[in-house]
Amino acid sequence: MSGATPVILSFSVWVLPLIAMLAAGLLAGFAAGIFGIGGGFIVVPALFFVLPLLGGVKAQYAHIAVGTSAATIIVTSIRSLAAHAKRGAVDWDVLRDWAPWIVLGSVLGVALAGGIDGKVLTLIFASGVLLMSLNFLLPKIGNRVISDQMPSGMVRVGIAGGLGGFSSLLGIGGGTIAIMVMTLCGRTIHRAIATASGIGTLIAVPSAIGFIVIGLRQVGLPWGSLGYVNLPTAVAVGSMSILTAPLGVAVTHSLPQAMLKRIFGIYLVFVALLMFKNAMKL
Fold first, then answer.
1. Is the pLDDT of residue 209 over 90?
2. pTM value?
């Protein structure tokens, strides 16, 4: 019996984090399908709740949250992209033309994140989330059209590279920014959301690899971490997001976006305030 005690204790320690991450995965997948985002706005705050239960050094939590979020977005965005593609809604030309600069920006963003301490990284995330909420809460910003052509040349390089870099710093799929750009350039909200799912994949793959690499020699990481990616939580979130991403896609193609955008915008404001509070504790 004595030999079973550590196993029981270990299991009991993991129950609450596991439930939290499974729930976060369900929500992240659904949000990814509806809004074309990778789910990082849901996963990162959830990880700030879970990581203290798994041990490790508090100063590492921000990097682990962002890195693990990037890893989960790989699964979530691919599943969402496939569901949108079946409906013929993805603009593959945009993905092809923007891919090199998005990937390059993501790599540079991860390199920058490696030199930022946890408190500053958390403040960056909170500020970015608050900024992104404006697109969902202010229709005059989210519904404007300034051109009928997507950016090209150096403008494309700057926007796509900045999109990749900023998103990799936040551990998000970049969907909100991508949707803003595409709708400003005359694309429908449904086509923009569908294409943004693919942009999430382009950001997430180099970001996750980068956070693994820059975290390999770090000490004080929670159990199950490979660099700055915590594998057990990544698997828990990814496995659930696969189930709900298609449901979100079905919703986004059957309902008007106005109310959904407002609800998500309010959620982002709440997340931003919560992350500002977390930053003050680091």
1. yes
2. 0.81
